[in-house]
Fold this sequence. Notes:
Blueprint: H1 2-26, H2 56-60, H3 75-94, H4 98-120, H5 125-140, H6 147-172, H7 179-221, H8 233-256
Helix pairs in contact: 1-3, 1-4, 3-4, 4-5, 4-8, 5-7, 6-7, 7-8
Amino acid sequence: MELILQLYIFIIGIVFGSFFNVCIYRIPENESIVNPPSKCPTCNTRLKPIDLIPILSYLISGRKCRYCKKEISSRYAYVEFLTGILFLVVFNTFSISLETIYYLVLASILIIITFIDIDHYIIPDEIIIFGIISALVLKLFGIGVPLKDSIVGAIVSGGGMLLIIYIIEFIVKKEVMGGGDIKFFAMTGFFLGLKGGLLTVLLSVYVGAIYGIITILHSKIKNKEYNSMIPYGPFISVGALITMLYGNHILNWYSSLFI
Protein backbone atom coordinates (compact mmCIF):
# COMPACT_ATOMS: atom_id res chain seq x y z
CA MET A 1 0.00 0.00 0.00
CA GLU A 2 2.84 2.39 0.90
CA LEU A 3 4.64 1.64 -2.37
CA ILE A 4 1.47 2.30 -4.36
CA LEU A 5 1.01 5.64 -2.58
CA GLN A 6 4.62 6.61 -3.31
CA LEU A 7 4.18 5.70 -6.98
CA TYR A 8 0.93 7.69 -7.10
CA ILE A 9 2.64 10.79 -5.71
CA PHE A 10 5.50 10.41 -8.18
CA ILE A 11 3.08 10.14 -11.10
CA ILE A 12 1.23 13.25 -9.94
CA GLY A 13 4.60 14.97 -9.78
CA ILE A 14 5.70 14.12 -13.31
CA VAL A 15 2.29 15.16 -14.66
CA PHE A 16 2.72 18.55 -13.01
CA GLY A 17 6.29 18.58 -14.32
CA SER A 18 4.93 18.27 -17.85
CA PHE A 19 2.78 21.35 -17.22
CA PHE A 20 5.74 23.18 -15.69
CA ASN A 21 7.64 22.63 -18.94
CA VAL A 22 4.86 24.55 -20.68
CA CYS A 23 5.16 27.36 -18.12
CA ILE A 24 8.94 27.48 -18.45
CA TYR A 25 8.70 27.72 -22.23
CA ARG A 26 5.74 30.07 -22.61
CA ILE A 27 5.79 32.53 -19.70
CA PRO A 28 9.00 34.32 -20.81
CA GLU A 29 7.47 34.62 -24.29
CA ASN A 30 4.29 36.18 -22.83
CA GLU A 31 2.23 33.32 -24.24
CA SER A 32 -0.82 31.68 -22.66
CA ILE A 33 -0.02 28.56 -20.66
CA VAL A 34 -3.39 26.97 -21.49
CA ASN A 35 -3.92 27.82 -25.15
CA PRO A 36 -3.01 26.78 -27.81
CA PRO A 37 -2.44 23.07 -27.10
CA SER A 38 1.13 21.75 -27.02
CA LYS A 39 2.94 21.42 -30.34
CA CYS A 40 6.36 20.46 -31.63
CA PRO A 41 8.58 23.58 -31.42
CA THR A 42 10.26 22.57 -34.70
CA CYS A 43 7.49 21.49 -37.08
CA ASN A 44 4.56 23.05 -35.14
CA THR A 45 2.55 19.82 -35.37
CA ARG A 46 -0.10 19.63 -32.64
CA LEU A 47 0.86 16.87 -30.23
CA LYS A 48 -1.56 14.02 -29.57
CA PRO A 49 -2.23 12.53 -26.11
CA ILE A 50 0.25 9.71 -26.81
CA ASP A 51 2.95 12.35 -27.30
CA LEU A 52 2.25 13.96 -23.94
CA ILE A 53 2.77 11.08 -21.51
CA PRO A 54 5.43 12.40 -19.11
CA ILE A 55 8.87 10.78 -19.54
CA LEU A 56 7.45 7.70 -21.32
CA SER A 57 6.58 9.56 -24.54
CA TYR A 58 10.11 10.92 -24.66
CA LEU A 59 11.62 7.44 -24.29
CA ILE A 60 9.16 5.59 -26.55
CA SER A 61 9.61 8.09 -29.38
CA GLY A 62 13.35 7.51 -29.36
CA ARG A 63 13.88 11.01 -28.01
CA LYS A 64 12.67 12.47 -31.29
CA CYS A 65 9.50 14.13 -32.56
CA ARG A 66 7.27 11.45 -34.13
CA TYR A 67 6.41 13.80 -36.99
CA CYS A 68 9.53 15.67 -38.06
CA LYS A 69 12.07 13.31 -36.43
CA LYS A 70 13.87 16.27 -34.89
CA GLU A 71 15.63 15.42 -31.62
CA ILE A 72 13.74 16.50 -28.50
CA SER A 73 15.65 18.20 -25.70
CA SER A 74 16.21 15.88 -22.75
CA ARG A 75 15.49 18.84 -20.49
CA TYR A 76 11.75 18.19 -20.76
CA ALA A 77 12.13 14.71 -19.29
CA TYR A 78 14.57 15.96 -16.64
CA VAL A 79 12.11 18.60 -15.43
CA GLU A 80 9.33 15.99 -15.24
CA PHE A 81 11.53 13.53 -13.36
CA LEU A 82 12.85 16.22 -11.00
CA THR A 83 9.31 17.36 -10.22
CA GLY A 84 8.24 13.79 -9.49
CA ILE A 85 11.17 13.33 -7.11
CA LEU A 86 10.56 16.66 -5.36
CA PHE A 87 6.88 15.86 -4.90
CA LEU A 88 7.92 12.56 -3.31
CA VAL A 89 10.45 14.22 -1.01
CA VAL A 90 7.98 16.89 0.11
CA PHE A 91 5.28 14.28 0.69
CA ASN A 92 7.60 12.05 2.70
CA THR A 93 8.72 15.04 4.76
CA PHE A 94 5.30 16.47 5.62
CA SER A 95 3.17 13.32 5.11
CA ILE A 96 -0.57 13.55 4.43
CA SER A 97 -1.29 17.05 5.66
CA LEU A 98 -2.31 20.50 4.49
CA GLU A 99 1.31 21.56 5.01
CA THR A 100 2.23 19.26 2.14
CA ILE A 101 0.05 21.30 -0.24
CA TYR A 102 1.65 24.51 1.02
CA TYR A 103 5.17 23.31 0.39
CA LEU A 104 4.31 21.59 -2.90
CA VAL A 105 3.18 24.99 -4.17
CA LEU A 106 6.53 26.47 -3.13
CA ALA A 107 8.50 23.59 -4.65
CA SER A 108 6.59 23.99 -7.92
CA ILE A 109 7.37 27.70 -8.10
CA LEU A 110 11.05 27.02 -7.36
CA ILE A 111 11.25 24.61 -10.31
CA ILE A 112 9.61 27.00 -12.77
CA ILE A 113 11.68 30.01 -11.70
CA THR A 114 14.93 28.04 -11.72
CA PHE A 115 14.69 26.95 -15.33
CA ILE A 116 13.31 30.24 -16.62
CA ASP A 117 16.21 32.06 -14.98
CA ILE A 118 18.71 29.57 -16.43
CA ASP A 119 17.28 30.08 -19.93
CA HIS A 120 16.54 33.82 -19.93
CA TYR A 121 18.25 35.41 -16.90
CA ILE A 122 14.89 36.74 -15.72
CA ILE A 123 12.40 36.00 -12.95
CA PRO A 124 8.94 37.03 -14.21
CA ASP A 125 6.91 39.19 -11.84
CA GLU A 126 3.74 37.19 -12.51
CA ILE A 127 5.27 34.07 -10.94
CA ILE A 128 6.31 36.03 -7.84
CA ILE A 129 2.82 37.53 -7.57
CA PHE A 130 1.21 34.11 -8.06
CA GLY A 131 3.43 32.68 -5.33
CA ILE A 132 2.59 35.39 -2.81
CA ILE A 133 -1.15 35.22 -3.54
CA SER A 134 -1.15 31.41 -3.31
CA ALA A 135 0.69 31.50 0.01
CA LEU A 136 -1.64 34.21 1.33
CA VAL A 137 -4.78 32.23 0.42
CA LEU A 138 -3.43 29.12 2.14
CA LYS A 139 -2.44 31.14 5.22
CA LEU A 140 -5.99 32.48 5.51
CA PHE A 141 -7.02 28.85 6.08
CA GLY A 142 -4.35 28.45 8.75
CA ILE A 143 -1.94 26.56 6.52
CA GLY A 144 1.80 27.24 6.57
CA VAL A 145 3.82 29.85 8.42
CA PRO A 146 1.71 32.41 10.38
CA LEU A 147 0.87 35.52 8.36
CA LYS A 148 2.65 37.96 10.70
CA ASP A 149 5.87 35.94 10.53
CA SER A 150 5.52 35.76 6.75
CA ILE A 151 5.15 39.52 6.35
CA VAL A 152 8.21 40.14 8.52
CA GLY A 153 10.10 37.43 6.61
CA ALA A 154 9.28 39.02 3.26
CA ILE A 155 10.25 42.52 4.40
CA VAL A 156 13.51 41.47 6.05
CA SER A 157 14.58 39.00 3.34
CA GLY A 158 13.66 41.14 0.36
CA GLY A 159 14.26 44.55 1.90
CA GLY A 160 17.46 43.46 3.62
CA MET A 161 18.93 42.08 0.40
CA LEU A 162 17.82 45.19 -1.49
CA LEU A 163 19.75 47.40 0.95
CA ILE A 164 22.84 45.18 0.88
CA ILE A 165 22.88 44.96 -2.92
CA TYR A 166 22.34 48.70 -3.22
CA ILE A 167 25.38 49.35 -1.03
CA ILE A 168 27.51 46.83 -2.96
CA GLU A 169 26.47 48.26 -6.32
CA PHE A 170 27.18 51.79 -5.08
CA ILE A 171 30.72 50.71 -4.20
CA VAL A 172 31.54 48.61 -7.28
CA LYS A 173 29.56 50.87 -9.66
CA LYS A 174 27.87 48.01 -11.50
CA GLU A 175 24.81 45.77 -11.18
CA VAL A 176 25.48 42.63 -9.15
CA MET A 177 21.93 41.30 -8.75
CA GLY A 178 18.69 41.84 -10.64
CA GLY A 179 15.45 43.11 -9.19
CA GLY A 180 13.82 39.76 -9.87
CA ASP A 181 16.20 38.08 -7.42
CA ILE A 182 15.28 40.59 -4.71
CA LYS A 183 11.57 39.92 -5.27
CA PHE A 184 12.29 36.20 -5.23
CA PHE A 185 13.96 36.56 -1.81
CA ALA A 186 10.88 38.44 -0.58
CA MET A 187 8.57 35.70 -1.86
CA THR A 188 10.58 32.91 -0.20
CA GLY A 189 10.59 34.96 3.01
CA PHE A 190 6.80 35.21 2.77
CA PHE A 191 6.52 31.43 2.37
CA LEU A 192 9.11 30.47 5.00
CA GLY A 193 8.88 33.27 7.58
CA LEU A 194 11.65 35.34 9.13
CA LYS A 195 14.03 32.55 10.17
CA GLY A 196 13.39 30.52 7.05
CA GLY A 197 13.80 33.55 4.80
CA LEU A 198 17.11 34.55 6.37
CA LEU A 199 18.38 30.97 6.23
CA THR A 200 17.46 30.89 2.54
CA VAL A 201 19.50 34.04 1.95
CA LEU A 202 22.50 32.56 3.76
CA LEU A 203 22.30 29.18 2.05
CA SER A 204 21.93 30.78 -1.39
CA VAL A 205 25.18 32.65 -0.80
CA TYR A 206 26.98 29.43 0.15
CA VAL A 207 25.55 27.51 -2.81
CA GLY A 208 26.42 30.34 -5.19
CA ALA A 209 29.95 30.57 -3.82
CA ILE A 210 30.52 26.83 -4.18
CA TYR A 211 29.20 26.89 -7.74
CA GLY A 212 31.37 29.90 -8.57
CA ILE A 213 34.54 28.28 -7.23
CA ILE A 214 33.88 25.04 -9.12
CA THR A 215 33.12 26.95 -12.33
CA ILE A 216 36.28 29.06 -12.06
CA LEU A 217 38.46 26.00 -11.40
CA HIS A 218 36.84 24.12 -14.28
CA SER A 219 37.41 27.08 -16.61
CA LYS A 220 41.07 27.27 -15.66
CA ILE A 221 41.59 23.54 -16.11
CA LYS A 222 39.95 23.66 -19.55
CA ASN A 223 41.67 26.98 -20.41
CA LYS A 224 38.32 28.59 -21.07
CA GLU A 225 37.20 32.12 -20.32
CA TYR A 226 35.11 32.35 -17.16
CA ASN A 227 31.59 33.69 -17.69
CA SER A 228 30.81 35.89 -14.69
CA MET A 229 27.16 36.31 -15.70
CA ILE A 230 25.38 33.64 -13.67
CA PRO A 231 21.63 33.44 -12.97
CA TYR A 232 21.16 33.69 -9.20
CA GLY A 233 17.61 32.32 -9.11
CA PRO A 234 18.73 28.66 -9.02
CA PHE A 235 20.85 29.34 -5.93
CA ILE A 236 17.89 30.96 -4.17
CA SER A 237 15.76 27.96 -5.14
CA VAL A 238 18.29 25.50 -3.71
CA GLY A 239 18.55 27.56 -0.52
CA ALA A 240 14.76 27.71 -0.17
CA LEU A 241 14.44 23.98 -0.86
CA ILE A 242 17.02 23.08 1.79
CA THR A 243 15.31 25.43 4.25
CA MET A 244 11.90 23.97 3.47
CA LEU A 245 13.04 20.39 4.04
CA TYR A 246 15.75 20.72 6.68
CA GLY A 247 15.52 24.28 7.99
CA ASN A 248 14.32 23.34 11.47
CA HIS A 249 17.13 20.79 11.84
CA ILE A 250 19.73 23.34 10.73
CA LEU A 251 18.40 26.05 13.03
CA ASN A 252 18.18 23.65 15.99
CA TRP A 253 21.75 22.48 15.34
CA TYR A 254 22.96 26.06 15.15
CA SER A 255 21.15 26.97 18.38
CA SER A 256 22.68 23.96 20.16
CA LEU A 257 26.16 25.36 19.50
CA PHE A 258 25.47 28.20 21.94
CA ILE A 259 23.75 26.20 24.66
